[in-house]
Amino acid sequence: MFKTDDAEVVHAHALAAGLPILPVQSFSRAVELDGARQDARFRTTRLDPGKIAMGRVYFCEHRTPELVWRREWQSHPNGARTIARVIVATGDPQQTASLFRALFGSEAVTECASGCVIAAGVAQVELTLPGAIAEEFGDAAAAPAGRAEYLAALELKVASLASTAEQLRQVPGVRIEARRIMVPARAAFNTTIAFSA
Question: Is the Cβ–Cβ distance between 156 and 80 less than 8 Å?
């Protein structure tokens, strides 16, 4: 999911670029604040998951961010503060990157040894060969499960690795390293979750 200020603008841009974009949808969900119920409202547009091998890629416009992005909801016992990396396994990083070049412009995509990297605010989306993912994560790596492209790993920045390790010590197969902690994909719905400081 990518944040946008205007889902209609994203839709129009993607349509003009010939991408398989679905119409903008509006929806809401109830939020209770200080005993009062209010509706958090959103507008989204997404690439057609039937035509994009990696699955769901969508853009969300928060119409009422004050009801969703609240400081009291932005802390978690595991210490997560922000998304650092989203790693997508793909057999053809250049082909997959062409989608993001069309969406964000060529300057947003850089090439690396095992694939391509897309800048996404403070995070990066990495389009990487499955072999490179297996090499980085070892037995904690996600299984392809018959998929050509898939979300392989998510890395979150945390305030304290020691505190995060304490919170995750009961997770089967959790791996604590010097600079990160890894929850193996088999314990996290077939996606490796890494925590780093």
Answer: yes
For residues 78 and 158, the answer to whether their CB atoms sit within 8 Å is: yes
Q: Maximum CA pair distance of the chain? A: 53
- Least Cα distance to 11 among 48, 41, 36 occurs for 48
CB-facing half-sphere around the CA of 89: CA atoms within 13 A: 24
Angstrom distance (rounded) from CA 74 to CA 16: 36
pTM: 0.90
CA 39 from chain centre, in angstroms, equals 25
User: Structural domains in the chain?
Assistant: 2-72 (no CATH), 76-196 (3.10.180.10)
Rounded CA separation 89/152 (Å): 6
Query: Model confidence over 74-133: pLDDT tens digits?
Result: 888 888 999 999 999 999 999 999 999 999 999 999 998 889 999 988 999 999 999 999
